[in-house]
Amino acid sequence: MTTIKEKAKEFTKVDRRDGKLALAHIYVAFIALFIGGLCGLLQVLVRSGKFTLPWGIGYYQVLTVHGVLLGLILTTYFILGFQIAAMSRTSGTFTNKQRSLGWIGFWIMTTGTIAAATMVLLNEASVLYTFYAPLQAHWIFYVGMALVVVGSWIVGLAKIMKYREWRKVHPGESSPLLSFMVIVNMAMWIICSLGVAVEVVFQLIPWSLGWVDKVDVLLSRTLFWYFGHPLVYFWLLPAYMVWYVVIPKIIGGKIFSDALARLSFMLFLLFSIPVGFHHQLTEPGIESFWKFLQVVLTMMVVIPSLLTAFSMFATFELRGRQLGGKGLFGWVKKLPWKDARFAVPFIGMAAFIPAGAGGIINASHQMNQLIHNTIWVTGHFHLTVATTVVLTFFGASYWLLPHLTGRVLTKQMNKLAIIQAIVWTVGMSIMSGAMHIVGLMGAPRRSDFSTYGGAEQATDWIPYQIAQAVGGTILFVGIILILYIVVNLLFFAPKGETEFPVGEVSENAEKTPMWLENWKIWLTICIALILFAYTVPVIDMIQNAPPGSKGYKFW
After folding, report:
1. Catalytic choice (47, 382, 403, 436)
2. What's the number of CA atoms in the CB half-sphere (13 Å) around residue 272?
3. Cβ distance 393 to 83 under 8 Å?
4. Catalytic residue, candidates 170, 321, 372, 446
5. pLDDT for the residue numbered 451
6. The predicted structure's pLDDT at residue 512
7. Rounded CA gap, 515 and 517, in Å?
8. In whole angstroms, what is the distance from residue 247 CA to residue 262 CA?
9. From the first residue on, what is the mean pLDDT of each consecutive set of 10 residues in the chain (555 residues)?
10. Is 342 a catalytic residue?
11. Is 279 a catalytic residue?
12. Radius of gyration of the chain, Cα coordinates, nearest whole angstrom
């Protein structure tokens, strides 16, 4: 009879049944990429002033499709699929119960996605990616988004159960690094998505059904941004998983430090959630002290970011010098630049340097006054999510999909993958660069500019809007290329064995202390920070709500 311990051993290959569950999520992610990317192309063409949407389609309709499908659906589905494969690879095959939970969560999410997308396509929910009140969507849209969140929790529960199973049969041992990172990532998602779930279920759904007449907009926005900023790190941490654990194996090196990697992830968990007010710096109703506090906490994420940069470039340099690199930068030439599995995520890493600098500007009170609600912010999101995160996801697909389908990445597809990354980088540089520049000139965010008050400076924006259209068109070519590669890897690439690369920790690294995996300590600190940052401001919002609002508060 097979023991639990034997079943929980570390696998070198993802179980075929777990692979099907992971692939189901990834299929939805790439379908969302195509539809959302097409709507993004339509947006930049409209903003150029040279194109009008056909068939009565509204600008904010395609804007909502673009934001929801790429910002929420693409990212969430790909991350959950990647996490399932990572857990199966490093903590062992999921049990039937765990896998069933994963499938239940997947279908709940997909039902919600179809419901929400249908309402947007019918122009019943053109409320943008942030779905702020007082913009109101059809109640089915809100129910659909709630189902996406609840379904993701159920998928996450399956991973937590697998992690607990591994810990039970390996007492006193550090869990596999990749599994640990998955659980930190899921803990962040579950904690932060509670905010948007409360907003949708207790405010927006009753309001859209006509059960209440009003919504407290300040409280609604606060609940959204309690979720909205850690969402960025929910996107980012899977990219960090690839950087920390997978890339060292791909280049033939070792993980610089297991302990440093775990510490950086725990710091992201602590300092990514109680910081939503830095998206509300211009809003009245929140005392300046609490805004200042959350700006300080926001800046704390610089620490794990710098730890990550140090760890990654130490790994690169050590490996480059092992291969004979001489001089100050001779090691750079020794890295495998012709391997798309390395080169594509590396471009994403490099993009995070200007993206991080832009994030500091966004979170700084005085500088935020200049760029708040301008298209600069949109340009910033396209550097962080649509470049750093998405290119890393593309790079991961080049080994993850062949591993799950029993195929191989051919030399031709590898070459095309590098071309795709170059196309993406060129298009994003043009589009995002134009957004940053015209944002500094005052061009508003979320607008097609066709009815923008006739401001004289609007004519100065035209060259930059055309540049956005050029960059967006190039990006759509990049989407077609990645979809071609993905279809090849899923259905047409030659059969064969592809490794799921998981790096080994350097023998020179210090032993990982067990307190880094003491969840009681870290979750207690996390909850304490959230309560400290939000309790008083939220109570103040309730006590000082607008006249006549007391009756519709859910508490």
Report:
1. 382
2. 28
3. no
4. 446
5. 53
6. 87
7. 5
8. 16
9. 41 88 97 95 86 85 91 95 96 95 98 94 86 89 95 97 95 93 97 94 93 90 91 94 96 92 95 89 88 89 91 91 88 93 96 90 84 90 93 97 96 97 97 93 77 57 88 96 97 94 88 91 95 93 68 41
10. no
11. no
12. 23
Sign of CA dihedral 540, 231, 260, 5: positive
Q: Is 2 left (phi over 0), alpha (psi -120 to 50) or beta?
A: beta
Q: Of the candidates 70, 206, 180, 291, which has an alpha carbon nearest to the alpha carbon of residue 517?
A: 180
Told to judge if 445 belongs to the known catalytic residues of this protein, a careful annotator would answer: yes
Question: Is residue 99 annotated as part of the catalytic site, yes or no?
Answer: no
382 given a catalytic annotation: yes
What are the structural domains, with CATH classification, of the chain?
4-552 (1.20.210.10)
Q: What is the C-alpha to C-alpha distance for residues 517 and 294, in angstroms, rounded to an integer?
A: 26
Spatial contact of 197 and 169, defined as CB atoms under 8 Å apart: no
Q: Determine the pLDDT at residue 184.
A: 97
- Whether the upstream peptide bond of residue 134 has omega within 30° of 0, thus cis, is yes
- 233 counts as catalytic: yes
Catalytic residue among 47, 89, 221, 229: 229
16 is catalytic: no
- Catalytic residue (one of 77, 381, 394, 449): 381
The active-site residue, picked from 163, 233, 277, 394, is 233
